[in-house]
Structure formats: C-alpha cells, structure tokens
Amino acid sequence: MNYRFLLPGLFLLSSFGVWFSPVFAQAADDPGTSSDVGNNSTDNSDNNVEESDENPKNKPKKPVVDPETKRYNDLLKTGLLKVFEGEATFNYARLEKFGATHPIPRVRAAVALALGRMGRPAGIKILHRMIERDGEWVRQAAYKGLADIGSKTSLEYFYVGAKSSDREIRIASFRGMGKTRDPGAREVLLKKGLKSDDKEIVKASILGLGYYQVPEDIRTFIDYLNSNDEELQKASVEALGRHKTRTSMKILEDSFKDKVNLRNQILDTLTEQKNSFAIFALLRILDANSGSPDIVNEISARLYKLKAVGKYMTVIADNTPLLKEPYVGAPKIRDLEVGEVGKVVTKNSVAYILPVDGQRIEDFYFKVLVNTKYKDAFTETVQGWVFGKYIQIRTISIPKEEKEPKKKGKKPSILDDMGPSEPEPSTQPEESNP
C-alpha cells in the first residue's frame, strides 16, 4: 500500500467529517441553536471590544506639547498674574518694567489696560512710551488706557490718534478727548466726532461732551435721545448723566415716561449721580408711578442704595409758601409748586391753626430741604418751613428684619441722613397731620 497519500487523506476526511456528523446535522436543523451560536459569536466580539477599550494601551494619547510652546504658555500665565497683582497693589514699578521689557505682547497690552483702570497720573508717561515704542496690538491697549485716564497731557496723542488708520485707536482718542475737558478737544468732538461715519466714534463723542457740562450741549443730547437709533439714545442718556446739572436730570426724569426701552438705564444713571437733583428726580418718578409696584420697588431699591432713607415730602398745593421760620407771617423764601419734592428734616413742636380752603386746619410746620429754584444759585438746596396741610409725607425705610446694628464710622447719606444700606427698602405714604 502506498502510504504517501494516507496522511493528506486523513486531514481531508476530518475536515468534511463535521458536515456529515449526525450531531451537527441536528444542530443545523434547529434554528434556535443556530441563532444561539451566532449570538455567542457576537457577544464574544463585544467582549473583545470592551476589553480593548478598557486596555490603557488603546486609549488615545494626550497631545505632546513641545517645550517651546509650554514655556510660552507658562510665561504668559505668569506674566498676566503678575500684572493683575501689580494693579491690585498699585505697583507702578512692576507694571512699567513689564510694559517695557516683557517678551509677550499680550502681557504688555494687559499692562496698558491695567494702568488705564488704575486711573492715576503715574501711569500716563508709561503709556506714552508704550505708544511710541510698541506695536499695533499694544498701542491699541495703550490708547484705551489713556482714554480711561483722560489727562490733558495726553491731548497731543489723542489728536494724532484721531487721524490714525487704526479704528480702535481712533475711537479711544475721541473717547479720551472728552475726559480732558479741554475747550480745543470739545471743538474736535463737535466738528469731527459727531459728523463721523463711524457710529462708535459718534457715541464716543456724545459721551465725551457730557463731561464738559456746557449748557449748549444739552440740545445735542436731546436730538440723539429722540433719534431712532437705540445705541445713540443710550449714549445720550449716559452723557446727560455725566452732565450732572439740574437741567440734565430733569430731562432724564421727563424721558422716563416716554422712553420705555431706556427706563432701567435712566434709573441707573440717576442713581450713579449721587446729588440732590438726581435723588429728587427719582422721588418725583416714584410719586408719578406710585400705582406700579414694579417701578416703586425699582426706585426704592435705588434710593436705599443711595442711603436716601427717611421722610420725604411732595407738595400737593400750588403756591405753597416756603418760610424762613416756623410761624405765621414769617419771611417767605419762595413759593413751592405742585409736585416739588424735598427731604423732611424735622417737625416743629408747636401746632398752628390756619385757614385753608375756607376751613380752619390745625397742623405743624415741617422743616424741609428742597432744590433751589434758579439755575445760577450758589447751592443745590435750600431749607425752609412749610405748613403740613400743603404736603404729603412718604417714609422710605428699611424692613425691620433687614436692620443691622449700627457700626462706627458709617458714612452719612447724601442728604445728611444716617440710614443703613443693603436690601430693598419699603415706601409708604403718610398723612402730614399728627
């Protein structure tokens, strides 16, 4: 017998034997068995995938940062941190050094912006050198810093910057001119800034004019306040606030009714002024909108922020005499108009009976603080006595649960009231009669 083909034949027979096996044939006829076999195969493959996913070797590796990039990032982070520390501690020596020698432009730009936020003259010369010696990115930041400070010593830089091809530098230059309050810069704002095709330059010019407090500029602010452009409207509101005059506060007060889209900004602007004109304007708005809880709450919170708590009065009778002394026949300071408001300082201890509208009314005289009537008056306010029947008194106070123990060294309110300050106050009208 030839055994050369025996071994290959056995292999061939064993490979086909499975198909002819009775056991395998029964399994093939059973569809459930076939399905199970297939599922087992899938499960095994899934397990293999899970195992491969759990294998740390198969996880994507983090990108390797080359040493140069890492050094740059570390230098940037450290530099910015040092700049912020220098700003917080007013370390001008550090900021000057970083602004002149730090290798990363973004850090030098951060120095320029920090010097502007600090707002002190010590940073002006540093910013001038940065403009003269550095590149575009840093020069933009340096101009913004100079605009924040707004010193007359920077006027030449602003004049040059207003003609720059860099838009950011032009905008910052017009913004900085207004803060200088220089008459020549005002002419540039009027003749160049307001006539610019760039809205941002127009806005910067409007805001800049607000610092001058020139009566003629009020007309310009009113024109932009009545324009159809909301951005210019908002700029005019801010400019009127910067004007800080009796007239500008009255315009903001009158605009509250019609300019619904600007109401929050008007209230914020009045609150920021911290003068009697603004406080009394808020009180008049409060009286005019006493039926709106939302408006009352908004204004009350702002009055509380100003520490303007206490008793306030509103005149309810026309031609109410404001007297120098609390008795009948005392010299008159002037007549008060309906709607005028003021702060109640004190109440006289002696009551009087006066004929009012054909009736005899018994009431007290109240000492009140009101705005002066004439624009050229030397002071904002004047004190006098008014009969209680002619006024309505409103109390602005802190809720009892919000009151805190008195602390030493607390600043008085703007109107010489010693009220605390924090949450929203409550307002409630009172009768003037005892």
Description:
- It is a single chain.
- Helix 5 runs antiparallel to helix 6 and helix 11 (183-193) packs antiparallel against helix 12 (199-210).
- The model is unreliable at 6-10, 15-42 and 416-426 (pLDDT under 50).
- It is elongated, with a radius of gyration of 39 Å.
- It has a domain at 310-430: Roll (SH3 type barrels).
- The protein contains 18 helices and 8 strands.
- By secondary structure, it is of the alpha+beta class.
- The strands form 2 sheets. A 6-stranded antiparallel β-sheet has the order 6-5-4-1-7-8.
Q: Mind sketching the topology for me?
A:
Blueprint: H1 6-20, H2 22-29, H3 31-54, H4 67-88, H5 92-101, H6 105-118, H7 124-133, H8 136-149, H9 155-161, H10 167-180, H11 183-193, H12 199-210, H13 217-225, H14 230-243, H15 246-258, H16 263-273, H17 276-288, H18 293-305, E1 310-315, E2 320-323, E3 332-336, E4 341-356, E5 359-371, E6 381-387, E7 391-397, E8 426-430
Antiparallel strand pairs: 1-4, 1-7, 2-3, 4-5, 5-6, 7-8
Helix pairs in contact: 4-5, 4-6, 5-6, 6-8, 7-8, 8-10, 9-10, 10-11, 10-12, 11-12, 12-14, 13-14, 14-15, 14-16, 15-16, 15-17, 16-17, 17-18
List keywords for this structure.
434 residues, alpha+beta, two-stranded antiparallel sheet, 15% strand
